[in-house]
Amino acid sequence: MGHYNFDEIIHREKTHSVKYDLRTKNFGTEDVIPMWVADMDFRTPDFIVDAIKRRAAHELYGYTFIPESFYESFQSWMKRRHGWDVRREWILYCPGVVPSLVVALLSFTSPGEGVLVQTPVYYPFFPIIVNNGRMLVENPLEIRYGRLCMNEDHLAACLDEKVKLMFLCSPHNPGGMVWKREELARLGELCLKNKTIIVSDEIHADLVFRGHEHCPTASLTEAIAQNTVTLVSPNKTFNIAGLSASVAIIPNRELFDRFRQTLENMHWMIPNIFAITAFEAAYRGGEGWLEQLLTYLEGNLNQVMDFMEREIPKIKPIRPEGTYLVWLDCRELGMTPEALKAFMIVRARVGLNEGPMFGTGGEGFQRMNIACPRSVLNEALARIADAASIKCD
Q1: Class for domain 61-284, per CATH?
Q2: Is 149 helix (H, G, I), strand (E, B) or coil?
Q3: Which of 163, 174, 177, 328 is the most buried (most CB within 10 A)?
Q4: In CATH, which superfamily holds the domain spanning 18-45+287-387?
């Protein structure tokens, strides 16, 4: 296993990068450090790049089927990393987690029926539900003891015969919560009682900090497994989001068949050659790289927490238990959403995600992506402190 250099600055401008090359479109200026869209500024690991190069060297890129080795690499990873025995017959290839959410919605609900989400939450959930004619049902999370927590009484009250589906974000984006086994078990039982199918977006499952452990929702009990669709991808973990490969894990055969039929109806079953190559390479050779990444990310997280407490105490980050995203509580700055936006973009010259886009509970917050070289992170923190007229070391 080699040593990976996460301090390396890799210039991404003029590569059609959403994060960098759309700064003017999203922030009105290029003069911001982009810390918004959730991909990393670290080089994609060499074992994935090498696998893609070997496949590209063949110089013929026709229709391709998914080899069994693809599934075997994923099954082995899930067993080693998460202690879950995923059967081959439960797995479906999908062209990304967000498209899979659409497939699940179309497979398991009808127009007018309800889909529950726990806000603030990953913002694509909202248009998927609303633009497809379903009813958005919100179960807002609560901040308790510096952590986003589920309001289970409100959840139980939300679940009625109209709510056919729940989009669960686990680990949670933007709050970074790694839901505890008992939290997921209570949620799972409530959904079972109401016959509400859980679609568990677990794309951040591997990005978990020390002292916390990701629990796949479907691994809790057989009954919950039969009521859960799990969506997993290496895209966040290994910084290959542009390749768009994922899987759906569906133990319930009826749900599996309905989901597969929708995939076939959309003609989304033909894989991208380089996506499946990268997927398999990631899960076969990725553990050493991942452990080094997590150590570096935890160093970045500690830097943010210490800096904010020392230099900008009015901004209170909620310490994430996983992901590389930090949910910044800026409410003590006393700014309107418009003023907070201008403060970050114009005065601090950093490009973050605005809290309201994550739904109820997002006002007064900003989401910061800390998956970048530490020198970049330090510059961004210094800019925020300077903008707040607080002396920096």
Answers
A1: alpha beta
A2: strand
A3: 174
A4: Aspartate Aminotransferase, domain 1 (3.90.1150.10)
